[in-house]
Specification:
This is Transposase IS4-like domain-containing protein. With 223 residues, the chain is α+β, with helices and mostly antiparallel strands. It has a single domain, classed as Transposase Inhibitor Protein From Tn5, Chain A, domain 1 (Alpha-Beta Complex). It contains six helices and eleven strands. Strands 1, 2, 3, 4, 5, 6, 7, 8, 9, 10 and 11 form an eleven-stranded mixed sheet that branches. The radius of gyration is 19 Å and the shape is globular.
Length: 223
């Protein structure tokens, strides 16, 4: 891996994906869980992945199987474990990129403690203080196109951006880099989609969902 990854630059991206196992019987790790692909709960294996990218090349560097009934670990636990392991291995990314699910105060503080930068999304009901008066829901704050520095409750100062798509869908992006501009945010968002490409690739071209292994040891090593 060292021949392909630059530990001192690039970007770390975390996301999870459901490996569909609709006909599985007595197969390790299979449980009912939400599938973004099907927009409903399905039988499958929950995969939490950490990849490194320079914006072009995508290299998987760690993964965890969601198996909370056996190891008591949530997806957020796996998120923190993988970032700790990445730091132990010598990674010092330019940014850590991840989705709303992992944007808890605990996770954001863990990244700050490593002196790393992050970009993620926040739910509309997250409490922020935009004017040093009081905390209010993020959705009620007037955010200019260039973004706005606010105080995120229980965390500290961050910069937020509101992006409204043509169909009216609204997203709120947040970073601990307070001087980030919109062009940088947009560039990082494009990079963050690399993990979607990776998950799609292992399903379409590697046949990971077709693996018929039933034992835990086999599911963890075969694809």
């Amino acid at each position: 891996m060292k021949n392909y990854v630059n530990l001192k630059c690039g970007f770390l991206i975390v996301d999870d994906s459901t490996l569909d196992k609709p006909y599985a019987k007595k197969m390790a790790f299979v449980r009912r869980m939400w599938s973004g692909k099907h927009h409903r709960t399905v039988k499958g294996i929950g995969l939490v992945t950490l990849v490194w990218t320079d914006g072009t090349t995508v290299i998987p560097i760690d993964f965890r199987i969601y198996n909370i009934d056996e190891d008591d670990k949530t997806k957020n636990d796996h998120f923190l474990d993988m970032l700790d392991k990445a730091e132990e291995r010598g990674f010092n990314p330019e940014f850590v990129l991840f989705d709303t699910w992992y944007a808890s105060v605990k996770n954001l503080k863990a990244i700050r403690k490593k002196e790393w930068h992050f970009l993620t999304r926040l739910k509309i009901n997250r409490s922020v203080n935009p004017d040093n008066k009081k905390n209010v829901p993020l959705e009620t704050v007037d955010i200019p196109p260039k973004g706005l520095v606010v105080h995120l409750k229980a965390y500290g100062f961050v910069k937020v951006f509101r992006i409204v798509s043509k169909d009216g869908d609204t997203q709120h992006w947040v970073t601990n880099v307070q001087d980030m501009d919109e062009s940088k945010r947009e560039d990082l968002v494009k990079k963050s989609w690399k993990i979607e490409e990776y998950h799609r690739g292992i399903k379409q071209f590697c046949g990971v969902e077709k693996c018929q292994a039933r034992k835990e040891e086999s599911q963890s090593t075969e694809g």
